[in-house]
Amino acid sequence: LDRAKEDQKKAEGDAEVLREKIEKFTTREGEMSVALNEAETKLASIQVERDELAAASSSVAQEKAQAEGESAKQLKFLQSENLQLMMDTKNLKRALLTTKAELEAYRSATVRSPLI
User: Rounded to two decimals, what is the model's pTM?
Assistant: First the structure.
């Protein structure tokens, strides 16, 4: 009988220890569930931010490509304009030299013939 009472007390003690462990595990499970939900929320937020940054990066890349294309067009135009101006300058120099030569010929002719 004493042995049975001792076994019952031991079993009750073991049961209490198990209840405490179950309570601790249940509490810990709740804490872990909350932490998991917070982590999932944070992950979702980070993914949204990542997607927004990717979209912004894509937009910046498109704007950069567009600006580079515009710069290339402007450079080509300016190069063409510069070439045209150089050709115009060359033609003007030729015309000036021709005019100078004609003027010199006219002066020479005027000096030789005082009739004018």
Answer: 0.51
pLDDT tens across 7-26, in order? 899 999 999 999 999 999 99
Q: How far is CA 54 from CA 2, 45, 46, 60, 114, in A?
A: 76, 14, 12, 10, 88
Q: How far apart are CA 98 and CA 104, in angstroms?
A: 10
Q: Is the dihedral of CA 38, 40, 44, 47 positive or negative?
A: positive
Contact 116, 110 (CB under 8 A): yes
For residue 8, with 0-12 CB atoms within 10 Å meaning exposed, 13-18 middle and 19 or more buried, which class applies? Answer: exposed
